[in-house]
Structure prediction request, 302 residues.
Amino acid sequence: MFKIKSFIMVGAAVFASLSAINNAYAEKQVWEAADGVYKYSPGNGYASMFVVTDEGVIAIEPVNTKHAKGLLNAIQDVTDKPVRFLLHSHNHWDHSNGGQVFRDAGAKIVAHAEAYEWMKANPNPDLALPDDVWAGNRKDIVLGGKTIELHYMGMSHGLGMTVFLLPEVKIAYIADIVTPNRVGFAIMPDFNIKEWSRTLKEVEKMDFTKAIYSHSHARTPFGSKSDVTKTREFIQDLQAAIMAEFQKGTAFGNIPSAVKLPKYEQWAMYKEWLPLNVWRVMLDMHMGPFPWRPDHAYEGAM
Ligand SMILES: [Zn+2]
Prediction:
């Protein structure tokens, strides 16, 4: 009896200390990546970035009103400088909602023309239309002596996909096209597989050593360029495994359950999503790349 009781007590103590660690981790929402450069992630699966300069703050990715309010509070915890810009990575509602919080705080909302056109055509009650629209492949914002480079990646995921680079501290903010330590997102929605691979190769050539990813299953708050390479290799390995099944003559409908990639077994959602990833990539190989659009369709549209 005594043994059982003490076992339970020890168990409860271990559980309590583990919970304390988990809570401590969950409570931490802001990480400093470099002097004045922060990651904000309140445990909802989304991460934003903000950059504090002498002349104000630049924030990236509002996500939704609740997230945006938390992000604004986090900014106001570290500085009393005003937020001057709110930048969007791409069109999708689950990243671009909540901008009004920043407009009310006096910030200008900035998006690529492609993302803007989509937002205008697809309103959402929580989506604030951007104030400033840019077109083409590149824009720099300089504030308080700090530069933030906006790189439009073309077809990849969604519309207006922008990778952000802070050249002085070699930090990148990357949304959706890389999620460290996780297989592809479900049915890989709105990804053009071929252009996604091309985009990842271009990101690998960019000059950065640390990355803040909008989603991550890594145990560390910051990622690196190797996460980009691993994602590109995952897509390649997936394509090769599907091709091998095509060559074996495996029936189309059986391929998603036949493909195994043990190298990625430890990645999050491996069991749940790998068959969905296979469906998506297999259809792309079978039908040809989609979604697709002509190049430069929106260049100079604004
Ligand atoms: Zn997206």
Q: What stands out?
A: The first strand starts at residue 30 and ends at 34. Residues 2-27 form the longest helix (26 residues).
